[in-house]
Amino acid sequence: MALHEGVRSYRQIKTLTERLLNEALADSDTPVQGELVLTQDDRLIRAAEDYADLFSLGARNSAALSLSLEDSK
Q: Mean pLDDT, to the nearest integer, of 40-58?
């Protein structure tokens, strides 16, 4: 880094290092993104009632699979 910047003396290296450290510390203190509010209101999120048949089907298949695995023992 120092050679890339054309720095040759200890004093210049120290100054460059301190500058880079201060920039890194400033960047780490800067929030990346503001806090977002969690919401369940979106046109892509459906009500659980819309998935009732799917949930029931999954539960039935899971129960049937468990029974068939127990029977095969």
A: 83
In the numeric block, which tokens belong to residue 6? 């054309």
Report whether 25 contacts 40 (CB < 8 A).
no
The stretch 20-46 carries a mean pLDDT of 80
Among 3, 41, 2, smallest CA distance to 19 is for 2
Separation between Cα atoms, residue 68 and residue 73, nearest integer Å:
9
Q: 3-state class of 24 per DSSP? A: helix
Q: Is 22 helix (H, G, I), strand (E, B) or coil?
A: helix
- pTM equals 0.36
**CA-based max dimension of the chain:** 80
